[in-house]
Amino acid sequence: MTHKPLHQLLRVASHLLDQAAAEVRAADLDPVPENIQRIGRALIEVIEVQRQLYAEAPELQPKTLAASPREHEANRLFTQFTIEALELEDAGNPEGAREKYTQFIGLSPSYPHREIARAEIKRLS
Prior knowledge:
- The chain has 125 residues and is mainly alpha-helical.
- It contains 5 helices and no strands.
């Protein structure tokens, strides 16, 4: 079974979500930060499916996006903690979600990922 059609659709989806976030900002669609975060959550879900796809079919992973082992681990850790935090938030437990992001900050060597986690903690406060 070929995964190439799914790969192409996911790439288009992630590109469209990225464009949508830029349009939210350009259109000043209030509340801008919250709307961008909503789109960001959808993008995280698409990226998780892409990660699973690339694990099964590594030849589909774009060479320009191939992460180093350290980056791959940082992305995996971020995805894991973000999914857990979003589940806690969806269950009505924002404090648990903040704690999950705080745990992530203590573990992650990735500055960009830690900054995203800090922004999520601020949003949940």
